Amino acid sequence: MVRNQFLLQLKPGKLEDYKNALANPCADLTALADKKGIRNLSIWNAADFIFGYFETEEELSFTAEEQAILDKYEEAMADVYSYISTRGEHMRLMFNDIGTPSETKEYVRKRAFMTKLDLGMQEEYKRRHDLLAMNRPAPDPSKPAKPRSSNNFTIWNASRYILGYQEIDTRYEQPKPVMPEGYINPWETYMLQIMSWISPMDGSMDLLYNKD
Question: 36 exposed, middle or buried (CB, 10 Å; 0-12, 13-18, 19+)?
Fold first, then answer.
């Protein structure tokens, strides 16, 4: 499975135009997406940003005719948004904890989040998450794996922006403990030394489109 993602910045006042484009998709573009086997497609909004995530069996490639369909769509949307990520390329992978994602999303709640790094903090952010991954206890192979609530948890970087995607299996989700007002967990406090939230701190970006 290949996980694909993109980050756009809306032109001023163009959110409704973008929503309208999602509600009335180009037929050629929809047919191309079906042909390429695009699935688990979700698109979110926070502030003037659009974050998209989708999956394919293989890395995407396009014929000249298919590329012309994409180019025509991008040209039509040129006054609506511009790319922050590089069009057609993956964003930089900063962290992943895949777990065991469910093939069907019937019980899955999807979450996306976005932060902005302080100037020049991309490598420091990556270093901190690498240490987190290194210090995580290895699973015991003698014990059966337990179902997890958090799966497909992945974080990417484009420019000074951090984008995260997470699938939460509600069958195994535990209630959050009640914490004092204003409480921020130690890991988040640590990371807020080098970044600030764009999406809600404890919530998700706004889901504009979802197709499993």
Answer: middle
Closest CA to 24 of 88, 57, 73, 75: 73
For 24, the 3-state DSSP assignment is coil
Kind and range of the H or E run holding 157: strand 150-158
Q: Do 52 and 5 meet the contact criterion of CB atoms below 8 Å apart?
A: yes
**pLDDT tens-digit readout, 93-113:** 999 999 999 888 999 999 999
Asked if residue 168 lies in contact with residue 152, where contact means CB atoms within 8 angstroms, the answer is no
Q: Do residues 115 and 156 lie in contact, with contact meaning Cβ atoms separated by under 8 Å?
A: no
**Confidence class of residue 145 from pLDDT cuts 50, 70 and 90?**
confident
Please, which contacts does 52-55 make with residues 24 or more away whose CB atoms are closer than 8 Å? 52/5, 52/6, 52/7, 52/8, 53/3, 53/4, 53/5, 53/112, 53/165, 54/4, 54/5, 55/1, 55/2, 55/3, 55/4
Lookup result for tokens 């958090």: 150
Q: How far apart are the first and last CA of the chain?
A: 14
How crowded is the C-beta side of 165, counted as CA atoms within 13 Å?
Answer: 26
Alpha helices for the chain (secondary structure H)? 15-23, 27-35, 64-76, 122-134, 186-191
- Is the pTM above the cut of 0.90? yes
Q: What is the DSSP letter of 132?
A: H
Residues forming beta bridges with residue 4, ordered by sequence position: 54
